[in-house]
Q: What sequence folds into this?
């Protein structure tokens, strides 16, 4: 009898329990995010409807949501522990261990489910930016490789030219799924998954498998990345290229590899062909690499290998853009930071406090976290 009880106790003890603050914090985050998502699916008005004839059904809904949230928390703890074990038996970060790959694939699968299997969890419809960037391709579906050089006019500005390189990916995808609403949804979703992969690679390069697992989960399940995965394929490609460039660039500097440096530079240069912010962020990365090469002579070949393809891609895009629009880097009519906000929450904030109020508001609304 005592042995049977002891065996049962040991089997229960196998269930993961947070052994550190990091595990507890990550598990709590995953549990709360999961519970809120399920509660919104069930509707809060139903969960808070405690009428005498309905309370058993309401109680079952609460038990279901709490149980699934607890299961998600346990899975999060196991993911972290698997990453920790891989890091302890690692080989200095030069090899992708199976535990990290499986954990990242699990987060990626959850991201696929959120973006494709349950698209109603993301704002419906197709955002104007989604179609705007693809207008040259829609207007000239058989216009050849340079069809993207056509000028896109926008209200309040002279318009902007869409790079043919940027249109290469949607051209390929539309060949399989068409250029209708489903095609644009697939385009946004696939680009969003590319960002998840790039964030995971960068996090592992910076801080190892454990951080990579957390980063993959945040990028796959965060609210704002999910929204972008429905609306902003061009922006997602830009950020993915920049994130991948940073990750491969760090690996190139650590290994002093000219091949990795060239790959990083190519990715950063391609980012300039997407959203206009890609050129600015790429310039910051290039400046940091140049300063590092100036201080460390042994890194100059690696940095030069990165700057060459990046510079060629940027110069080519600048020449094309200027030929079509008469300026370099123009896109939309920008809104000044002191412009009166259209948000009802910020409309009455006095001018001197508008910037900190807007920052706080954006952190709460756009982070995707329950702050």
A:
């Amino acid at each position: 009898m005592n042995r049977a009880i002891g065996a049962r106790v040991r089997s229960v003890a196998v269930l993961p329990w947070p052994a550190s603050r990091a595990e507890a914090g990550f598990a709590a985050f995953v549990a709360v995010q999961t519970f809120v998502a399920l509660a919104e699916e069930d509707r809060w008005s139903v969960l808070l409807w405690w009428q005498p004839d309905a309370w058993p059904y309401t109680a079952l809904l609460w038990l279901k949501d709490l149980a699934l949230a607890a299961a998600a928390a346990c899975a999060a703890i196991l993911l972290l522990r698997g990453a920790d074990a891989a890091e302890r038996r690692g080989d200095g970060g030069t090899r992708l261990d199976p535990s990290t790959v499986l954990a990242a694939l699990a987060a990626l699968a959850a991201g696929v489910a959120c973006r494709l299997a349950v698209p109603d969890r993301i704002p419906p419809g197709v955002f104007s930016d989604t179609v705007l960037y693809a207008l040259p391709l829609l207007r000239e579906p058989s216009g050849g490789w340079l069809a993207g050089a056509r000028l896109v006019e926008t209200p309040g500005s002279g318009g902007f030219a869409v790079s043919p390189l940027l249109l290469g990916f949607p051209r390929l995808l539309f060949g399989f799924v068409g250029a209708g609403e489903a095609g644009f949804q697939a385009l946004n979703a696939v680009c969003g998954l590319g960002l998840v992969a790039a964030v995971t690679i960068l996090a592992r390069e910076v801080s190892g498998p454990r951080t990579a697992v957390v980063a993959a989960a945040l990028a796959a399940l965060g609210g704002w990345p999910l929204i972008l995965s429905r609306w902003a394929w061009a922006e997602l490609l830009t950020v993915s290229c920049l994130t991948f460039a940073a990750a491969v660039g760090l690996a190139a500097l650590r290994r002093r590899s000219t091949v990795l440096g060239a790959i990083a530079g190519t990715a950063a240069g391609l980012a300039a062909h997407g959203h206009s912010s890609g050129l600015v962020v790429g310039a910051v990365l290039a400046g940091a690499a140049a300063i590092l090469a100036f201080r460390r002579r042994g890194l100059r070949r690696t940095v030069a290998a990165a700057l060459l393809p990046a510079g060629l891609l940027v110069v080519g895009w600048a020449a094309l853009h200027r030929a079509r629009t008469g300026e370099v880097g123009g896109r939309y009519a920008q809104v000044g930071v002191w412009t009166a906000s259209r948000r009802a929450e910020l409309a009455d904030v006095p001018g001197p406090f508008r910037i900190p109020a807007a920052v706080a508001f954006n952190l709460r609304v756009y982070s995707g976290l329950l702050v």
About this structure: Confidence is low (pLDDT under 50) at residues 5-13, 329-339.
